[in-house]
Amino acid sequence: MTTTHPIPSRARQIARTIGLFWSTSLAAEAEYRGNFVVAALSSAGNLFGAAFSMWLFYRAGAGFPGWSGAEVLVVLGLFSLWTGVITTVLTPNLSRIVTHVTEGTLEFVLLRPLDSQLQVSLRAMSPWGLPDLVFGAGLITVGVVASGHASPAALLGIVPMLSALVLLYALWFMLATTAIWFTKIYNATEVLRGLMDAGRFPIQAYPLAFRFVFTWVVPVAFLTTVPAEVMLGRSNWTWLIGSAGVAVVALLLSRLIWLRALRSYTGASG
Amino acid sequence: MRALHLALRLLWMRSRGLFMASYAYMTEYRAELLLWALSMSLSFILMGVWFEASSRADVGITPENVVRYFFSVFLVRQLTVVWVVWDVEEQVRLGKLSSQLLLPIDPVWRHLMGHIAERFARLPFVVVLVALFFALYPAAFFVPSPSSVGLFVLLSLGAFLLRFIIQYTVAMGCFWLERASAIETLHVLLYMFASGAIAPLEAFPVEVREVLMLTPFPYMIWLPARALMGDVDVDVLWRGALVMSAWGGFFLVVNRVLWRRGLRRYSAMGA
To answer: What is the ipTM of this complex?
Structure first.
């Protein structure tokens, strides 16, 4: 069976492995079920706080140029969605990567017949990001509908959203890879989170210099503003293709850095 | 008299020893400290957003003050970072607390000294980031008066101690719950939104602000930041001192009670 369709069976094998990885992490996390209440409470609180701080801008009549109160909810929803992704997949794996490097167990990962980047990126998952994912998706829907943009064209937003997901992963993985050189970087996710915070607001809310940085240096604009604009039907093909391009470049770069880092990995003493 | 002298000498030697050990440990992982300092970029992000907003409409604070305010917020947050709940959680969960309890010194001193030593190890990065900020944005440069700086340092110290005692009290939850740090995330949430870290309190509706002023949060960021800007009334200062010491005293008592009860429950690993 493996000889006739080598590629699909390989893909199936990978999917099965990841399925196993995740079900074991879920089983481990299920030990702390009470956490779920806290996680849901803190996501709800976070969302309320974020919405409140947005309201502060509109209350004084400042707002954000080109964004109505309802439209800006889409940006907030996307932000919440990515926060959920970070909590669900990125943070739990990062601490594992750091442990692999500090304790030298990365060797076992490298020995296994499965791509090392795939293994360290998707080994663990944590269900505590679920409330953020749900609230985020809900808020995006509310924002699109309330601002009167509920049309099939809004579904085009899936493309820049997928690009944003890839970009988020690539940015995070590049940070995580630095563990091989710097060893103890449990808080690299905090840096990513800190920069991601810029995605709370549409890029038009920033002064010119910030806009440049958040588009081209730390491409936060591609995480929230670009997908939101596509969903609200006021973007063009340039941004759609551009977002995919940025994602692919970032992914390739993360791969390159990982391979380079592995060459300088020297085991537990490194 | 001699006994007092000896006690003070012992205290000094102990704190110096703990400080030096913690400082050496902290400098070993300098890269991590740089990442921590960078993770506080939120203040600068919000500075940009509020700067734009305040130049478009009257939001209760001028653009110039927005820049100074969020810059001061950045400094206060660097000076008042606290993570004791994660350390305590690990010690209790893995049973590492047992060896600490054998020492003739309360474990809290080790935590406290670790935090203070980290502050000094972090300082060079903060100086570099501040220099970078003013190099990129020279228009924001301002020299606070010596009295403002003194008040700022004093209030930041108070804010740090208050945050430490509150978080250490949350950490006492470890004796009953597996993950007290989950409660801490809720506490941080309140802290971020109610302290003025997200938006200057001047932009809040008056009623909301009045309620917040009774909580300990505005005194952890907003008040020290205003002090550095040299823009704080004497009665606000007195009220701050009152509210801070009331909350500090409250948490100190709760903390000691929970510590005693918790220790009785503690059964080393698997507690």
So the answer is: 0.81
Select from B45, B182, B205 the Cβ nearest to the Cβ of A38.
B182
Per-residue pLDDT of chain A (270 residues; tens, 9 = 90+): 445 555 678 888 888 888 888 888 888 887 777 777 888 888 888 889 888 988 999 887 888 888 988 899 999 999 999 999 988 888 888 878 878 887 878 888 888 888 888 888 888 888 888 889 999 999 999 999 998 888 888 888 889 999 999 999 998 888 888 877 776 666 676 777 777 888 999 999 999 988 998 888 888 999 999 999 999 988 888 888 889 999 999 999 999 998 998 888 776 554
User: Residue B120: inside a domain, yes or no?
Assistant: yes
A185 neighbourhood in chain B, CB within 8 Å: 31-32, 35
- A197 chain-B contacts, CB cut-off 8 A: 41-42, 45
Q: Closest Cα partner for A163 from A232, A96, A247?
A: A247
CB contact (8 A) between residue A32 and residue B29: no
Residue B55 inside a domain? The answer is yes
Option in A41, A64, A198 nearest B45 (CB): A198
In whole angstroms, what is the distance from residue A135 CA to residue A131 CA?
Answer: 6
How many Cα neighbours within 13 Å face the side chain of B87?
16
Chain B residues lying within 8 Å of A42, measured CB to CB: 182, 185-186, 189
Range B31-34, long-range pairs (CB < 8 A, 24+ positions): B31/A178, B31/A182, B31/A183, B31/A184, B31/A185, B32/A182, B32/A184, B32/A185, B32/A186, B32/A187, B33/B118, B33/B121, B33/B122, B33/B125, B34/B125
Any B CB within 8 A of A195 CB: yes
In-domain check, residue B4: no
- Determine the distance from the C-alpha atom of residue B35 to the mean position of all C-alpha atoms in its chain, rounded to a whole number: 17
Residue of chain B nearest A175, judged by CA positions: B35
- For tokens 């049309």, the residue is A151
- DSSP assignment of A132-163: HHHHHHHHHHHHHHHTT--SGGGGGGHHHHHH
Task: Give the count of domains, chain B.
Answer: 1
In a mutational test of the A interface, the residue from B26, B33, B45 whose CB has the highest number of chain A CBs within 10 Å is B45
Residues 57-96 of A with CB under 8 A from B: 57, 59-65
- The two tokens of residue B200 are 């200057």
Q: What is the dihedral of CA A221, A223, A224, A229, to 10 degrees?
A: 80
Which of A29, A53, A218 to probe the B interface (max B CBs under 10 A)? A53
Structural domain including B224 reads 11-265
Does B255 fall in a domain?
Answer: yes
DSSP assignment of A46-63: HHHHHHHHHHHHHHTT--
Give the model confidence (pLDDT) of B1-23 as tens digits. Answer: 777 787 788 777 777 777 777 77
